[in-house]
Structure formats: structure tokens, C-alpha cells
Design a protein that fits this description.
The protein is of the alpha+beta class. 11% of the residues lie in helices and 17% in strands. It is built from four helices and ten strands; from the N terminus they run βαβββββααββββα.
């Protein structure tokens, strides 16, 4: 296994610090085909957010062709049940704009969008209270290895994982804030860190 193939260590940040990071525009949460159907839309209204898209459907249900898991994705009609929270509906967003480098941009980012577009993964309703109650909360980004918040946990401000030397032990072994990206290390004081940012580990 090369270093590039090695699992990325988990990262532990307060929600405030996680929210200070910018979305890198991978686009993988905007089209179910980009995660082989893992990421879906729940509670898709019958109008498919047409008022936000000048009358055309914004969120479009998709399904695989008869080829099963190897089949191509294609649009399908909205059907009863798609509007249920319990129904995982594979989808694509008609405002999604794939880029030549593999990333994706939102064509209506500067306009009104469905609320969940701006909530994932660190602005969800009640998330602050959940983190404080649990102490640590895994962000549901395991299907998005290109995401800014991939393999990241939101932790309460006093959680021991935030200690730059002790770190935290979990299923991945010893993990500390040394694993933060350079952009976050540069913002160490803003994220609640004191003194000099921790140096990179060499083990």
C-alpha cells in the first residue's frame, strides 16, 4: 500500500472550526451517480423545487438502467413516496455544473436553494446541541473522499481530542490535530488553539 492509498486519519474540530473551512467544490453531494447511489435526497416534494428553477425541476430523481449496479444512471419521474423522509431517493441537481477538473459548481449558489444544500455537513439544524450532548459527532462524509470535511468529527470545545499532544485514540489509532490541513493550521488561533500550531508528526 502506498502512502496515497493509506486511510486518511480522522480529524477532530469544534463546529466553529469546521465551519471556518471552505467547501472545495467537489460536487459529490450534488449528484447521486458521483457516489454510486450512496448519497440520496429524502423528502423530495412533488414540485421538485420548480419555483427555484424558473418552472423546471431542480432536483430530479434518477435510477440505474437495467444493467443493475453496472448500469448507467438516467432520469425518472417523481413518484409517490419520494416526498417521505424515510425514502432515500437517488437524484441529480439540474443546477449542477460539472467542471473539466472533476469538481462541480452550483449554478444557483447566489440564489435561493433548498435549505439542505447549505446545511450539509456542518450547518444542520440542532447540530450544535447534538455535539454538546454527545461530546463527539461523526460527520456523514464517508462517501465523499474529496470533501473538505471527509473523515472529520465535530467535538465539544472541552473534548480531549483537541489537546495537541494527547490526541485521541479510536479505531484508527492515535490521532491528533497534527492531521489538520495547512489552511486550518494557519488559522490555529481562530480555531481555539493556543501557542504554536503542532508540528507534523514523523511516525
Amino acid at each position: 500500500m502506498s502512502l496515497d492509498d493509506a486511510p486518511r486519519p480522522r480529524r477532530y474540530l469544534t463546529l466553529e472550526a469546521a465551519r471556518a473551512l471552505d467547501c472545495n467544490g467537489c460536487g459529490d453531494c450534488c449528484d447521486s451517480s458521483r457516489t454510486d447511489g450512496f448519497w440520496t435526497w429524502g423528502a423530495l416534494p412533488r414540485d421538485q423545487y420548480r419555483p427555484l428553477m424558473d418552472g423546471g425541476p431542480l432536483i430530479i430523481p434518477v435510477a440505474r438502467s437495467e444493467g443493475g449496479w453496472d448500469g448507467a444512471w438516467g432520469d425518472r419521474d417523481w413518484r409517490p413516496g419520494d416526498d417521505s423522509d424515510a425514502t432515500p431517493t437517488p437524484f441529480r441537481c439540474s443546477a449542477f455544473r460539472p467542471q473539466p477538473d472533476g469538481r462541480g459548481l452550483c449554478g444557483i449558489h447566489d440564489r435561493e436553494r433548498p435549505s439542505k444544500c447549505g446545511e450539509f455537513p456542518v450547518h444542520m439544524v440542532g447540530q450544535d446541541d447534538d455535539v454538546e450532548a454527545r461530546g463527539v459527532m461523526h460527520l456523514e462524509t464517508s462517501a465523499f473522499p474529496r470533501c473538505t470535511w471527509f473523515r472529520m468529527d465535530a467535538v465539544a470545545a472541552a473534548h480531549p481530542a483537541l489537546h495537541p499532544q494527547r490526541g485521541c485514540v479510536d479505531s484508527d489509532g492515535y490521532v491528533a490535530l497534527h492531521a489538520l490541513p495547512p489552511s486550518m493550521l494557519a488559522a490555529w488561533p481562530r480555531s481555539g488553539g493556543t501557542g504554536r500550531p503542532p508540528a507534523a508528526r514523523r511516525d
